[in-house]
Design goal:
Elements: E1 24-27, E2 50-60, E3 67-73, E4 85-89, E5 96-99, H1 101-114, H2 151-156, E6 157-158, E7 161-162, E8 165-167, E9 170-175, E10 178-182, E11 195-197, E12 203-209, E13 223-227, E14 233-243, H3 245-254, E15 265-266, E16 277-287, H4 291-299, H5 310-326, H6 332-342
Antiparallel strand pairs: 1-12, 2-14, 2-16, 3-4, 5-9, 6-7, 8-14, 9-14, 10-13, 11-12, 15-16
The structure holds zinc ion.
Zinc ion binds at residues 118-119, 121, 138, 149-150, 152-153, 158.
């Protein structure tokens, strides 16, 4: 009889990164499991809730790589990368870098999930048994009239349930890109696992990568990628409909607007090697009061000045962030844990010896 020897899995212990401090941290699950309720939905404009647009500017602080799925030959780029495939990032038709709205939404959602009582979604089927009861992904069953979902699913949507926020693609404010060399260990992967399992295979928390002062560039040993260099800026717009004050406040905390809990986003590939740090500025908020106004703005956003800018904007933002805290939609313990990982600025150095 032959026994099949299991292939050693690449773990923290036997990988080439052994001995390097781990570039991520686990954010614990809130002690109280997700609180589910019926979502507001987008079918009706609700006057006791908030709807409108948020103008955002993202400033790149460490090189950022957003995979487009397209690979080109390095010979298109330069002689030194002649035989190496160059991994392309997303460009729009004007050759400007682009961050798809769906990518941004994913980043914002996972942070929102971590600091609220939300389900563990997108856990691979084979690990479903390891998800603590009460934290399983929200499922809507219309036939049985089960339409209650967790805090994050209310805002960002669940399977068969449209969320209350929409992110448009973020456009770079200038043309062109820079070229970086990503350590091959951290080549872009379809999706980095978001939940983390302990040695017993149980879900131990949500995984978040630290920011670092700069990203690792592996030089000619790395994989050449098109990237957004430091201080590149992107602009985008977030539309929201029927949010409570606490929900909008929580969204703004995630976007780094809470003065007591300043954080930056981590967007795209190469997170373990310090890539993808982006600081968000809220440039304007336009609150919409009626369905008619909503329709007008939707079709022609630039026709009227936004309702909140500068001082009024700042006051509004801080006011509703306070509501998010006081109504305890935001879980303070998890926020404090997350702040240790995502705070910006940081003096943390990127991991060495990983390429
Ligand atoms: Zn959920």
């Amino acid at each position: 009889m032959t026994t099949i020897k299991p292939q050693p899995r690449q773990t923290q212990e036997n990988s080439p990164t052994a001995g390097v401090p781990k570039p991520y941290q686990l954010i614990s699950l809130p002690a109280e499991s997700p609180k589910k309720s019926k979502p507001a939905g987008q079918d009706r404009f609700k006057n006791d809730r908030l709807s409108g647009f948020i103008g955002l500017r993202l400033t790149v602080k460490t090189s950022a790589f957003i995979a487009s799925g397209v690979v080109a030959m390095g010979s298109d780029l330069s002689n030194t990368t002649r035989n190496i495939p160059l991994i392309k990032t997303s460009l729009d038709r004007n050759q400007q870098l682009l961050i798809p709205g769906s990518s941004l939404k994913g980043v914002v959602r996972s942070t929102y999930e971590a600091i609220t009582r939300s389900c563990l979604c997108k856990v691979t089927r084979r690990y479903q048994e390891q998800v603590p009861s009460g934290y399983k992904e929200c499922v809507i069953n219309r036939q049985r009239n089960q339409v209650e979902v967790c805090a994050a699913c209310q805002v960002f949507g669940a399977m068969d349930w449209q969320g209350l926020v929409h992110f448009t693609d973020a456009q770079c404010e200038k043309t062109g890109f820079s070229t970086g060399f990503m350590p091959s260990l951290y080549r872009p992967r379809p999706d980095e696992r978001r939940a983390y399992f302990n040695q017993q295979g149980k879900v131990a928390g949500r995984k978040f990568y630290y920011h670092a002062v700069k990203s690792v560039d592996a030089g000619d040993r790395g994989i050449p990628v098109q990237q957004a260099g430091k201080e590149f800026t992107f602009i985008t717009q977030l539309r929201f409909m029927n949010l409570t004050q606490a929900e909008l406040g929580t969204l703004l905390i995630v976007l780094g607007q809470d003065k007591q809990n300043k954080m930056a986003l981590k967007v795209g590939g190469g997170k373990p090697v310090g890539m993808g740090t982006m600081v968000v500025d809220v440039t304007e908020i336009d609150l919409i009061k009626s369905k008619e106004e909503w329709r007008d703005r939707y079709s022609n956003y630039d026709s009227q000045p936004p309702s909140l800018t500068e001082k009024a904007l700042e006051e509004f933002v801080q006011k509703i962030i306070k509501v998010a805290h006081s109504e305890k939609l935001v879980q303070d313990k998890q926020l404090q844990e997350l702040k240790q990982v995502l705070q910006w600025p940081t003096d943390r150095q990127p991991p060495e010896g990983v390429y």
